[in-house]
Specification:
The chain has about 290 residues and is an alpha/beta fold. Helix content is about 35%, strand content about 15%. The chain contains ten helices and eleven strands. The strands form three sheets. The protein has a seven-stranded parallel sheet, covered by helices on one side. Strand 4, helix 2 and strand 5 form a beta-alpha-beta unit. The radius of gyration is 18 Å and the shape is globular. It starts with a strand and ends in a 13-residue tail after the last helix. The C terminus is likely disordered.
């Protein structure tokens, strides 16, 4: 039986298939994407369908995605977990600048609290480790914010297994976000470490940035199940490991419904064997939000 839920840090239960907000912004994650009412409708429908994990970031837009989350969902229903990220500064479409100085991280977190209309952020994720700032200073700042009640749990984004081990010696880590999908398994060592310690892995690009919706094997298996290829790619993640909690994003109500219906897909041993064979490691992960 495939687990439907996961407990972040052993405390916050969430449905394993969540919703990510990056696609609510314009090209290059910059500016708005159409009218706000469309984004608001998608967010509200996601929650109506039982989504309990909303993943956003301060630099999606920038600021736009967090503001849309608050507009659509505040006051937040009981049990809804809001995750956001800080540690990256935007200067234009697809322009990302890592910023991990303690004073900047604190300012980013407090700005997210205001935009999200929250007193406490359930899961605050360091969007990138700043190579120019000691890890202890970056995580120490997040620990201070946690002690002040401004964040509840700490997550990391785009780290190696070795970096996660080092981070765990400094503070408790509830989640990581890395690129991981049906055809990109470079983060497999990280996944194994997450499994060993009960840490959620929120895979970004769970649909390969759209490429997996056209994969021939996915298409063949999808046809046999009477579903869409993208649903097979998401179902594979849910079958692959109980700590994988994908948060696919979309600005389309129809695509949202399709993604969320992936939880009903049950893959057999032969399906999993064929899908597992598609995996290949990548030496580096491309930049993304």
């Amino acid at each position: 039986m495939i687990p439907e839920n996961f407990e972040l840090a052993g405390q916050l239960p969430v449905r394993r298939l969540g919703y990510g907000t990056a696609q609510l912004t314009g090209p290059g994650y910059w500016g708005p994407r159409g009218e706000a009412r469309g984004a608001v409708a998608v967010l509200r429908r996601a929650v109506e369908r039982g989504v309990t994990l909303i993943d956003t970031a301060d630099n999606y837009g920038p600021s736009i995605a967090e503001e849309l989350v608050a507009e659509a969902l505040c006051p937040y229903p009981a049990g809804l977990v809001i995750a956001t990220k800080g540690g990256v500064v935007r200067t234009g479409p697809d322009a990302w600048h890592v910023e991990g100085r303690p004073e900047r991280l604190r300012a980013m977190c407090e700005a997210s609290l205001r935009r999200l209309r929250l007193d406490t952020i359930d899961l605050y994720q360091l969007h990138r480790l700043d190579p120019d700032v000691p890890m202890a200073e970056q995580l120490g700042t997040l620990d201070e914010l946690r002690r002040e009640g401004k964040i509840r749990h700490i997550g990391l984004d785009s780290v190696t297994a070795e970096q996660l081990e080092a981070a765990r010696e400094l503070t408790d880590i509830a989640s990581v976000q890395n690129r991981y999908n049906l055809t990109d398994r470079a983060s497999e060592p990280l996944l194994k470490l997450c499994e060993a310690h009960g840490i959620a892995l929120l895979p970004w690009f769970p649909l390969g940035n759209g490429s997996l919706t056209t994969d021939r094997v996915c298409a063949d298996i999808a046809a046999a199940h009477g579903v869409a290829p993208g649903q097979i790619a998401l179902a594979w993640l849910l079958h692959r490991s109980p700590v994988l909690c994908p948060t696919p994003g979309t600005g389309s109500l129809a695509h949202l419904e399709e993604n969320l219906d992936a939880t009903a897909v049950r893959l057999g041993k032969e399906d999993m064997s064929r899908l597992d064979a598609l995996g290949w490691p990548r030496p580096t992960s491309p930049r993304r939000a």
